[in-house]
Each structure stands twice: as C-alpha cells, then as structure tokens.
Specification:
Elements: H1 4-8, H2 11-26, H3 29-32, H4 40-56, H5 76-92, H6 97-107, H7 111-114
The protein binds protoporphyrin IX containing FE.
Protoporphyrin IX containing FE binds near residues 31, 35 and 107.
Length: about 120
C-alpha cells in the first residue's frame, strides 16, 4: 500500500505545503507572537522532515527531544488555527481531498503533545 507521503507526491510537495503553512501562520496575529525569536528557516527544514516522516507512518518525535514548547503555551484554539492553515496549505498545493484527510488524521494524534494548556470551563 502506498504511504500518504507517496500519495501526496513526495517530499517536494511536503516542503511546498510547509512553506505555505508558515507564511499563513506568521501572518496570523494570534500565532505570530509564538514565533518571535524562532529561526524560521531551520524550523521549516525540521518540520518538512518531521512531516514527511509522519506521512511515511514513522512515529513523530513530538513531546520528546527536539519538540518545541513555545511560550505562552498552546491552547486548543491555537492548535485549531494551525490545523486550519495546514488544510488551506494542502489545498493550495493541489493535494487531493482524500489525501488531505489522511494527512490530518495522521497529524491528529500529535495534538496531545502539542497542546500544553489544558482547557478550562468558560
Ligand atoms: C500538529 C501540530 C504541531 C506539531 C506536530 C508541532 C511540532 C513541533 C515540533 C516537532 C517542533 C520542533 C521543531 C524543531 O526541532 O525545529 C515545533 C516547534 C515550534 N512550534 Fe510546533 N507543532 C504543532 C503545532 C504548533 C502550534 C499550534 C504552535 C503555536 C501556536 C506551534 C508553535 C511552535 C513554535 C513557536 C516552535 C519553535 C520553537 C522554537 O523556537 O524552538 N506549534 N513544533
């Protein structure tokens, strides 16, 4: 069976998606602050590798060494924004809808390690 990475068209498509994704995240006022002081060039490279690995079915090294834990902590809302921009970036890179869904399913289990601030009742 072909991996999600193969269905998507390989690492060059992932690199394209990641570039588009950071353009969006950095122009979003609710997210940009998290990336102050971050070397975006390096982050893009690392994320392309991480993402390609996840889409190949490899376990993600999130929550272990190398995973960023930016201040002031990530809530579910910011996570949701990021996933929305990821979906937009995938569509703009002409990734088919079925592969887009598979990609979001592959990323979804990582939420537990990414969201650092527990939800509170409002
Ligand atoms: C599926 C969702 C996400 C995954 C899998 C993920 C994973 C990671 C990983 C593995 C790194 C380290 C990369 C490296 O070694 O260079 C990282 C860095 C970072 N992430 Fe995420 N992340 C996610 C969502 C988010 C969200 C929602 C935010 C903020 C709202 C965020 C902000 C950051 C920042 C600012 C860094 C860089 C920290 C630094 O400067 O070292 N991430 N992320």
């Amino acid at each position: 069976m072909r991996t999600v990475l193969e269905q998507m068209g390989g690492e060059s498509v992932v690199s394209d998606v990641v570039t588009r994704f950071y353009e969006k995240a950095l122009s979003e006022p609710r997210l940009a602050g998290y990336f102050h002081g971050t070397n975006i060039h390096l982050l893009r490279e690392h994320q392309t590798r991480l993402f390609a690995g996840v889409l190949r079915g490899e376990p993600a090294p999130v929550g272990q060494e190398g995973a960023g834990t930016p201040d002031p902590g990530i809530h579910y809302d910011e996570y949701g924004l990021v996933i929305g921009y990821l979906a937009d970036a995938l569509r703009e890179s002409a990734v088919p809808e079925t592969v887009l869904s598979e990609t979001l399913f592959a990323v979804a289990p990582l939420a537990r390690d990414v969201i650092t601030v527990p939800a509170v009742a409002r």
